[in-house]
Amino acid sequence: MLVLLAFIIIFHITSAALLFIATIDNAWWVGEGFFADVWRVCVTINNTNCTDINDQFTYYPTMQAVQATMILSTILCCIAFLIFLLQLFRLKQGERFVLTSIIQLMSCLCVMIAASIYTDRRQDIHSRNPEFYVYTAEGTFGYSFILAWVAFAFTFISGLMYLILRKRK
After folding, report:
1. Which of 92, 82, 74, 94 is nearest to 15 (CA)?
2. How big is the chain by its Cα radius of gyration, in Å?
3. Among 56, 115, 149, 159, which residue is least crowded by beta carbons within 10 Å?
4. pLDDT tens by residue, 146-156
5. ∠ CA 169-156-114 to the nearest 5 degrees?
6. Is residue 162's pLDDT more than 80?
7. 3-state class (DSSP) for residue 43
8. What is the largest CA-CA distance in the chain?
9. Residues 6 or more apart whose Cβ sits within 8 Å of residue 107
10. Residue 72 contacts by C-beta under 8 Å, 6 or more apart in sequence?
11. In the structure, how many helices (H) and strands (E) does the chain have?
Protein backbone atom coordinates (compact mmCIF):
# COMPACT_ATOMS: atom_id res chain seq x y z
CA MET A 1 0.00 0.00 0.00
CA LEU A 2 2.89 2.32 0.73
CA VAL A 3 4.27 1.72 -2.76
CA LEU A 4 0.93 2.72 -4.31
CA LEU A 5 0.85 5.89 -2.21
CA ALA A 6 4.41 6.76 -3.25
CA PHE A 7 3.51 6.16 -6.92
CA ILE A 8 0.46 8.43 -6.69
CA ILE A 9 2.44 11.20 -5.02
CA ILE A 10 5.28 10.97 -7.56
CA PHE A 11 2.77 10.89 -10.44
CA HIS A 12 1.05 14.02 -9.11
CA ILE A 13 4.33 15.87 -8.57
CA THR A 14 5.36 14.92 -12.11
CA SER A 15 2.08 16.34 -13.43
CA ALA A 16 2.68 19.61 -11.59
CA ALA A 17 6.27 19.79 -12.85
CA LEU A 18 5.11 19.26 -16.45
CA LEU A 19 2.55 22.04 -16.04
CA PHE A 20 5.14 24.42 -14.60
CA ILE A 21 7.59 23.72 -17.44
CA ALA A 22 4.92 24.01 -20.14
CA THR A 23 3.65 27.29 -18.70
CA ILE A 24 6.98 28.97 -18.03
CA ASP A 25 9.38 27.75 -20.71
CA ASN A 26 9.68 29.52 -24.05
CA ALA A 27 9.17 26.71 -26.57
CA TRP A 28 5.55 26.45 -27.73
CA TRP A 29 6.49 27.27 -31.34
CA VAL A 30 10.10 26.88 -32.49
CA GLY A 31 12.06 27.07 -35.70
CA GLU A 32 15.25 28.16 -37.36
CA GLY A 33 16.24 31.43 -35.70
CA PHE A 34 13.31 31.90 -33.31
CA PHE A 35 11.31 30.45 -30.44
CA ALA A 36 7.97 31.60 -29.08
CA ASP A 37 5.57 30.82 -26.29
CA VAL A 38 2.47 32.33 -24.75
CA TRP A 39 4.49 35.12 -23.08
CA ARG A 40 7.01 36.36 -25.65
CA VAL A 41 8.61 35.84 -29.04
CA CYS A 42 12.40 35.59 -29.33
CA VAL A 43 14.47 35.91 -32.49
CA THR A 44 17.94 34.35 -32.28
CA ILE A 45 19.54 35.63 -35.47
CA ASN A 46 22.93 37.20 -34.57
CA ASN A 47 21.79 37.70 -30.94
CA THR A 48 18.69 36.88 -28.94
CA ASN A 49 16.05 39.60 -29.10
CA CYS A 50 12.85 38.90 -27.15
CA THR A 51 9.58 40.82 -27.45
CA ASP A 52 6.87 40.46 -24.85
CA ILE A 53 3.38 39.78 -26.13
CA ASN A 54 1.34 42.85 -25.17
CA ASP A 55 -1.90 44.61 -26.09
CA GLN A 56 -0.51 45.76 -29.48
CA PHE A 57 -0.60 42.10 -30.38
CA THR A 58 -3.47 41.06 -32.66
CA TYR A 59 -5.32 38.18 -30.95
CA TYR A 60 -3.94 39.31 -27.60
CA PRO A 61 -7.16 38.19 -25.83
CA THR A 62 -6.62 34.73 -27.28
CA MET A 63 -3.09 34.59 -25.89
CA GLN A 64 -4.37 35.88 -22.55
CA ALA A 65 -6.88 33.03 -22.50
CA VAL A 66 -4.07 30.52 -23.08
CA GLN A 67 -1.94 32.19 -20.39
CA ALA A 68 -4.79 32.29 -17.88
CA THR A 69 -5.89 28.69 -18.37
CA MET A 70 -2.31 27.39 -18.13
CA ILE A 71 -1.73 29.33 -14.91
CA LEU A 72 -5.08 28.17 -13.53
CA SER A 73 -4.28 24.59 -14.43
CA THR A 74 -0.95 24.76 -12.60
CA ILE A 75 -2.55 26.34 -9.52
CA LEU A 76 -5.37 23.79 -9.46
CA CYS A 77 -2.89 20.92 -9.74
CA CYS A 78 -0.93 22.24 -6.75
CA ILE A 79 -4.13 22.79 -4.74
CA ALA A 80 -5.27 19.25 -5.57
CA PHE A 81 -1.99 17.90 -4.22
CA LEU A 82 -2.35 19.83 -0.97
CA ILE A 83 -5.96 18.70 -0.59
CA PHE A 84 -4.88 15.10 -1.26
CA LEU A 85 -2.34 15.33 1.56
CA LEU A 86 -4.97 16.86 3.84
CA GLN A 87 -7.54 14.21 2.92
CA LEU A 88 -4.96 11.50 3.44
CA PHE A 89 -4.95 12.31 7.14
CA ARG A 90 -8.56 13.49 7.53
CA LEU A 91 -10.70 11.01 5.58
CA LYS A 92 -12.28 8.05 7.30
CA GLN A 93 -11.28 4.60 6.20
CA GLY A 94 -13.08 3.51 3.02
CA GLU A 95 -13.94 7.02 1.76
CA ARG A 96 -12.92 8.26 -1.67
CA PHE A 97 -10.74 11.25 -2.58
CA VAL A 98 -13.56 12.93 -4.51
CA LEU A 99 -12.61 16.56 -3.81
CA THR A 100 -9.02 15.94 -4.91
CA SER A 101 -10.31 14.20 -8.03
CA ILE A 102 -12.65 17.06 -8.95
CA ILE A 103 -9.92 19.67 -8.60
CA GLN A 104 -7.42 17.57 -10.54
CA LEU A 105 -9.95 17.02 -13.34
CA MET A 106 -10.57 20.79 -13.42
CA SER A 107 -6.81 21.22 -13.84
CA CYS A 108 -6.97 18.71 -16.68
CA LEU A 109 -9.80 20.66 -18.31
CA CYS A 110 -7.86 23.94 -18.06
CA VAL A 111 -4.70 22.58 -19.68
CA MET A 112 -6.80 20.97 -22.42
CA ILE A 113 -8.52 24.30 -23.11
CA ALA A 114 -5.20 26.17 -23.25
CA ALA A 115 -3.52 23.69 -25.59
CA SER A 116 -6.63 23.45 -27.77
CA ILE A 117 -6.94 27.23 -28.13
CA TYR A 118 -3.27 27.49 -29.07
CA THR A 119 -3.58 24.59 -31.52
CA ASP A 120 -6.63 26.12 -33.19
CA ARG A 121 -5.50 29.78 -33.30
CA ARG A 122 -1.76 29.39 -33.88
CA GLN A 123 -1.97 30.06 -37.62
CA ASP A 124 -4.09 33.20 -37.15
CA ILE A 125 -1.85 34.48 -34.35
CA HIS A 126 1.30 34.10 -36.43
CA SER A 127 -0.05 35.38 -39.73
CA ARG A 128 -1.74 38.47 -38.27
CA ASN A 129 1.27 39.62 -36.23
CA PRO A 130 4.10 39.98 -38.77
CA GLU A 131 6.01 42.44 -36.58
CA PHE A 132 6.25 39.77 -33.86
CA TYR A 133 6.41 36.64 -36.01
CA VAL A 134 8.62 37.58 -38.95
CA TYR A 135 10.44 34.23 -39.05
CA THR A 136 7.78 31.91 -37.66
CA ALA A 137 6.06 30.72 -40.84
CA GLU A 138 8.26 27.61 -41.05
CA GLY A 139 8.19 26.56 -37.41
CA THR A 140 6.97 23.52 -35.53
CA PHE A 141 5.32 22.93 -32.21
CA GLY A 142 7.95 22.96 -29.47
CA TYR A 143 8.49 20.77 -26.46
CA SER A 144 6.54 23.06 -24.09
CA PHE A 145 3.46 22.61 -26.24
CA ILE A 146 3.98 18.83 -26.25
CA LEU A 147 4.52 18.87 -22.48
CA ALA A 148 1.20 20.68 -22.10
CA TRP A 149 -0.57 17.81 -23.87
CA VAL A 150 1.37 15.24 -21.84
CA ALA A 151 0.38 17.12 -18.67
CA PHE A 152 -3.23 16.92 -19.86
CA ALA A 153 -2.96 13.13 -20.01
CA PHE A 154 -1.20 12.94 -16.64
CA THR A 155 -3.73 15.15 -14.86
CA PHE A 156 -6.59 13.22 -16.42
CA ILE A 157 -5.17 9.87 -15.30
CA SER A 158 -4.40 11.13 -11.81
CA GLY A 159 -7.87 12.66 -11.54
CA LEU A 160 -9.38 9.29 -12.38
CA MET A 161 -7.02 7.55 -9.94
CA TYR A 162 -8.20 9.82 -7.12
CA LEU A 163 -11.82 9.14 -8.05
CA ILE A 164 -11.32 5.37 -7.87
CA LEU A 165 -8.95 5.36 -4.89
CA ARG A 166 -10.28 4.63 -1.42
CA LYS A 167 -8.51 5.37 1.81
CA ARG A 168 -7.14 2.25 3.41
CA LYS A 169 -5.52 1.64 6.72
Report:
1. 74
2. 19
3. 56
4. 999 999 999 99
5. 145
6. yes
7. strand
8. 62
9. 15, 19, 72, 73, 74, 76, 77, 80, 155, 159
10. 107, 110
11. 4, 5
Q: What is the DSSP string of 102-168?
A: HHHHHHHHHHHHHHHHHHHHHHHHHHT-TTT-SSGGG-EE-HHHHHHHHHHHHHHHHHHHHHH-B--
With cut-offs at 50, 70 and 90, classify the pLDDT of residue 168. low
Q: Is the pLDDT of residue 136 over 80?
A: no
Q: How far is CA 24 from CA 8, 10, 63, 100, in A?
A: 24, 21, 14, 24
Taking the CA of residue 116 as centre, how many other CA atoms within 13 Å lie in the half-sphere pointing to its CB?
8
Other Cβ atoms closer than 10 A to 62? 18
Distance CA 167, CA 120 (A): 41
- Among 3, 31, 40, 38, residue whose Cα is nearest residue 111: 38
Q: Mean pLDDT for the chain?
A: 88
Q: Nearest Cα to 5, choosing from 79, 77, 89, 73?
A: 89
Torsion of CA 81, 88, 168, 104, to 10 degrees: -30
